[in-house]
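Lab notebook page, bench 4
Experiment: in silico fold of construct C2
Operator: M.H.
Input chain length: 127 residues
Purpose: comparison with the prior construct
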Amino acid sequence: LISFIVYYLAHYPDVKRKMFDEIDRIFQDDKTRPITESDVHNLKYCEAIVKEVARIFSVVNSFPRSLEKSDEIGGYQWPADTMLRINIDAIHHNEEYWEEPNKFNPDRWMVEGFEPKKNSFIMFGGG
């Protein structure tokens, strides 16, 4: 994930500048002091960059799930104990959930009140 963050910062200087502006605002003249929990909560744009990179390049591409009982999914009947794989990349790049899903846009996370649609952002496999 870190290498993709560095890649996007190198290719989007405006994003990099906004990130440094936020860091400068939070840490002011003391960039060597330890990072506090409060700092982490206040680095909203940095968090937006991490989330956007994780959305585009999922840490986990898919994860398995097993049906405990038979169920109808997608118009098909599936027996109990069927193994399914949830394709996170398909969810993270679905236009039903994301405006311009293939575009790197950390600002989407900065919109007041923005919350991804339920189950449309699965950063580490969904538990």
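Observations: The mean pLDDT is 94. The radius of gyration is 18 Å.
Next step: discuss at group meeting.
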